[in-house]
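retry 2 of 3: previous attempt timed out while embedding magnesium ion. Reduced batch size to 1 and resubmitted. Inputs unchanged:
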Amino acid sequence: MIGVRNITKTFPARSGPELTALENISLDIAAGEFVTLVGPSGCGKSTLLDLIAGLTEPTSGELTIGGHPITGPGLDRGVVFQQYALFPWRTAQANIEFGLEVKGVPRRLRAERAREMLALVGLTAFAHSYPHELSGGMRQRVAIARSLAYEPAVLLMDEPYAALDAQTRESLQEDLLAIWKRTGTTVLFITHSIEEAVYLGQRVAVMTARPGRIKRVVDIDLPDSGAGDPRSEPEFVRYRRDIWELLHDEVRAGV
Ligand code: ADP
Ligand code: MG
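retry 2 succeeded.
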């Protein structure tokens, strides 16, 4: 579904040599897969996501979505950023309807679909609230609902929960997994939380310090923890430690 082949991205510097943000990155993500991406701060995670979103162009290499070259943003990809700018003059429902309007979905269907999405993220009672009337967690749920409403094949998320408190984050993580299982969307999720990466991802891609490369892709295979919290299972703790060690070397290399 997502093909990243030998991607290099450099930025011109104001003075001195140009800055290589990504160096020869390759990553393939299959349809319906949930991949999380971790790496030291400044290693190029957001740069990679912006490239896949079609917001910027690579310096070299090949990017594909569903086998087609990426030439710009598209409704096949929904993007959720850490601070998602909802339209402040639109209600939660009208924000969610936005992508459907762009797609030309008729008004009745739009409203129906937005209602479904509001229910999915538990905000039915807030359909007519404006962003300033919602908490940070609620706003982020609206942003997620908005990007899911028009059923993009791919969901690209750049530290969407970083600014939220721990409890809200955990509940949104569960929501997201439930939505992903229901819809079969392909997800690329950037986080700086190793725990979040292991909890959400079927695979965790670990990046090196800048210039960013893929250091290791770790398959996460957790036993069913039933009603318990998977985070306290020994396998979970082991994955967390392994990835911590991979990252720790990079953070040291970066200073
Ligand atoms: P991350 O998301 O992993 O923290 P980024 O992708 O935001 O890292 O940035 C990677 C590197 O590229 C950083 O050194 C950053 O300063 C640089 N960078 C990002 N965007 C630009 C830009 N538009 N112009 C110049 N440098 C940039
Ligand atoms: Mg970033």
